[in-house]
């Protein structure tokens, strides 16, 4: 199953049009110095008006699955259940336009577009935010019932916590201390639990997942395999937020294994009753996959993270290129959670531009994807991997990096909003046609 992905704030623009509400990202982008070059998602790719053109491109490429997100603030401007009819109608149009084209919509309910009003009432520090999110999720699923059959509750709760509430480099720009972070963590997990139930009730038979991210590991040599599997789920105090286990252990396994003193704080934070809410096992796990760590076994078998050698291959954003995670990381995730896995995001930023011949040549992206998909093929022999969504369909607003980072299969010339297929888009169309790399 081959698809492409996007998110509301990164592509839509015009968040306040037709009665839409302000999200934490609208507010954060106004903060001086928060975003590269003072940019914002005010216009982005103008998908609010141009989504049909983008869906036509998917059709042209033969891509039949589209993962997009619904902006909570556009639909529920104050986060209090006072619905904005034009916001709901917009997503009706997007869903219908997918279905008309034979494209399956995969809806992410929360890709970070928290209504600013809800943030001002405490944001993820407040238990009410989890309740309000479930109300929004249930409303969307009820509205889409029969039309949308695949949902993800939260996108990367890890990044919401780490970049939004710990480091403050993402909206809402908070730098909370461990006790407050533990509360945010709990409320995000409760939001998943409550929303999963709300979606299942409103849209019986729909599949509900969660999109996770965090450290994935791969072994230095075959003899290091046990060490890399162990390292993948360790939750060290210094970086517990960037782990799959801090989100997936609670929702899939109903608990966490405390390690350092901060994590003991996390465990103390959650009552038995709350664990029941949180333990809402998803139908599928979405894995946002970009890079990972190479691990060797130390003298006592304990995992040792290997440093990256000078000149290690990297993308334009300087993220390391580590295709091995698609084999070993996915095997580890499947061994631990035993649930169907989807690659909900995978891709890279390149310094794309229009060449003299009017085309966008991006051999880096084709090389990267060939490596990652080959490794994914090996992973699929060991794990139940059901699909792949390229991040992203079009170039878009890359959060605090602004428009400088281009992740799309489709180039966006922002001044004119013209879309230009990159070489990789045509290449990906071939992968979709052949159902993988092998037969090409
Ligand atoms: C992920 C986000 C996505 C995009 C990619 C590059 O963390 O989910 O919105 O920004 O990174």
Query: In CATH, what is the homologous superfamily?
Result: Glycosidases
Integer-rounded radius of gyration: 21 Å
Question: Overall 3D geometry?
Answer: globular
Q: What is the CATH class name?
A: Alpha Beta
Give the N-terminus to C-terminus distance in angstroms. 17 Å
Q: Widest sheet: strand order?
A: 1-2-3-4-5-7-10-11
In the CATH hierarchy, the architecture is Alpha-Beta Barrel
Whole-number count of domains: 1
**Runs with pLDDT <50, length 5+?**
none
Instruction: Tell how many strands the DSSP assignment holds.
Output: 13
Portion in beta strands: 5-15%
The main pleated sheet reads as: 8 strands, parallel, barrel
Q: Output the CATH topology.
A: TIM Barrel
Query: What would you call the structural class?
Result: alpha/beta
The portion of residues assigned to helices is 40-55%
Instruction: Please write the string of helix (H) and strand (E) elements.
Output: EHHHEHHEHHEHHEEHHHHEEEHEHEEEH
**Number of helices, counting only DSSP H or I runs of 4 residues or more:** 16
Can you describe what's shown?
This protein is α/β, with parallel strands linked by helices and 440 residues long. It contains 16 helices and 13 strands. It has a single domain, classed as Glycosidases (TIM Barrel, Alpha-Beta Barrel), CATH 3.20.20.80. It has an 8-stranded parallel β-barrel with strand order 1-2-3-4-5-7-10-11, surrounded by 6 helices. Strands 6-8-9 form a 3-stranded mixed beta sheet. It has a two-stranded antiparallel ribbon with strand order 12-13. A hairpin with a 5-residue loop joins strand 8 and strand 9. The mean pLDDT is 97. Beta-D-fucopyranose (FCB) binds next to loops.
